[in-house]
Amino acid sequence: MTDSKEHLQAITEIRSMMERSSRCISLSGLSGVFAGIFALIGAFLAFDRFEHSTENYRTMGGEELIGVTIYFLEIAVAVLFSSLLVGTLLTIRNSKRKGLKVWDNSAKRLLINLAIPLFAGGLFCIVLLYHGIIGLVAPATLIFYGLALVNASKYTFNDIRYLGLCEIILGLAGSLFIGYGLLFWAFGFGVLHIIYGALMYYKYERN
After folding, report:
1. Sorting pLDDT into bands at 50, 70 and 90, what band is 171?
2. What radius of gyration do the chain's Cα atoms show?
3. Burial class of 195 by CB neighbour count within 10 A (0 to 12, 13 to 18, 19+)
4. Which residues contact 169 (CB under 8 A, 6 or more apart)?
5. Distance CA 11, CA 4 (A)
């Protein structure tokens, strides 16, 4: 009986080691919370810009349309940079607390699989902007971001897959309601990130 328990314990330890070596498990749930907060701030600034505009994007002239587009891109870059900076700092802290390497093979695979759909989505959004199809940019960012999360989920927590699926569904829904893309974007990148990040924190980091 004792031998059986020892064998089971050994198998459990081996599985745990394999899991740690093949998956990036140092991601911090708090980074998702902060990313959501930054996204909501960005969405608020974008809404404020629309409120002070005399026209909506469907009837804007070329010069005003370019100005609004540049402003939105500046907000998106600021949100992305802030999220990456805070996420990196929190991940480093979480890695040190767990005694894990910040940059290993699993982290490299995670980054590569995350970057491919994001890069493709970024190029696609540039094409949409080039053709003046601004109404589909926000839904497209949600869809490609969701695809990136699903693609990268096999190299980190499985929970990320469900967040990715929610982002994809939200993006597809947003593409049906042109003109409300910013609301869908705020909910996807803001509210969902906060909920997901809080759940991940309480599930994996609280103790």
Report:
1. very high
2. 20
3. middle
4. 146
5. 11
Look up residue 121 and give its two tokens.
């989505």
Residue ranges per structural domain of the chain: 2-205
Residue 109 tokens read as 């695979």
Query: Residue 107 CB: number of other CB atoms within 10 A?
Result: 20
Nearest 5°: the CA angle 133, 138, 144 is: 105
**Residue 84's CB: how many other CB atoms inside 10 A?**
12
Longest dimension (CA), the chain: 80
CA separation for the pair 35, 194 (Å, rounded): 8
Q: Which amino acid is at 59?
A: T
Distance (Å, whole) CA 42 – CA 77:
10
Is 70 exceeded by the pLDDT of residue 65? no
